Amino acid sequence: MVLPIIVLFNPEKELLKRLLISLKDQVKDICIVDNSPISVKNSIDDILNIIPNKVEYFELNENKGIATAQNIGIKYAEDNNYDHVLLLDQDSSLPDNMVKGLLTAETELLKKNIKVATVGPAFIDEKTNESVNAIRAKLFYVKRIPVDINSIEPVGSDYIIASGSLIRISILKEIGCMDDDLFIDWVDIEWGERANHLYGYKSFIIPTVIMRHSIGDETSKALGRNINLHSDFRNYFIVRNAVYLMRSKSMSFNSKLLYLIKVPQYIVYYSLMSKRKMYSLGLLTKAVYDGIVSNMGKGHFK
């Protein structure tokens, strides 16, 4: 049985309603972990009452980070004998039969004796209407593999986006849960790399299952590519966690080398694109320091 885990942080009510309605006929039970500083349960009770599913609702009453929130849901799934978890963001929307499609794809891969960490849908970014590539870290560069949504062949990737990823509980017991220290950002990347680099399990994008998802707050064009822009708050964690992961045994050598190249680029680009450029520069410099000394969790924002 599959348990969807939805992590909330001050959700937009209509988007959450869209997600729950898209999910209600595909699973029996739903787990919601509310990371909002003030629980939003009372404000969304009317939505929860229109779906037939059993909903297990965890109110954290503070932002404990995406990793901890996901782990709370995973622990609940383990304790209650679910076979899989399906990680979801609050602004995602599932296509019809997505859960069935992912389960079928996973089964076919396992029949071929492939060590599967996770399977997830092909993503279409709602802001750009572009499909998200599979990623493979090479020496000094990232190989971006286009996902052909007209194909039926799963596409291997070093990691996949957390939202929409289907993971067996047995794999989580072997590999471990999400890294709480990361708080937000790089959580799915670290887990996918850990599964691949340390345990030999592969992540796959399933092109026959297509999911629309909003990535980043805004986008900007740079060097011919759309770059996802985030808040200064998020950029701190992107930089800090990249520095921290350079020393992590979870990551491949190729990935660590790429982070070494990318971090200075992040600092310059994010600072230039910020509305508070000097504040951003100072914050990202602090992020580098915090990553080096392992000031993790909320780090600067404790």
Q: Quick one: how many beta strands? A: 12
Distance between the termini: 38 Å
Sheet with the most strands?
Answer: 8 strands, mixed
Estimate the helix proportion, in percent: 25-40%
User: How does the overall form come out from the CA principal axes?
Assistant: globular
**What portion of the residues fall into strands of 2 or more residues?**
15-25%
Give the low-pLDDT segments. Answer: none
Relevant terms:
eight-stranded mixed β-sheet, 12 strands, 9 helices, 302 residues, two-stranded antiparallel sheet, single chain, alpha/beta
Explain the overall architecture.
This protein has 302 residues and is an alpha/beta fold. 39% of the residues lie in helices and 24% in strands. It has nine helices and twelve strands. The strands form three sheets. Strands 3-2-1-4-9-5-10-8 form an eight-stranded mixed beta sheet, with helices on both faces. The protein has a two-stranded antiparallel ribbon with strand order 6-7. The protein has a two-stranded antiparallel ribbon with strand order 11-12. α7 runs parallel beside α9. The longest helix is centred in the C-terminal third of the chain and has 21 residues, at 253-273. The mean pLDDT is 93.
Topology:
Layout: E1 2-8, H1 13-23, E2 29-34, H2 41-48, E3 54-59, H3 66-79, E4 84-89, H4 98-111, E5 116-125, E6 134-138, E7 141-145, E8 155-157, E9 166-168, H5 169-175, H6 187-199, E10 202-213, E11 218-222, E12 225-229, H7 232-245, H8 253-273, H9 277-292
Parallel strand pairs: 1-2, 1-4, 2-3, 5-10
Antiparallel strand pairs: 4-9, 5-9, 6-7, 8-10, 11-12
Helix pairs in contact: 7-8, 7-9, 8-9
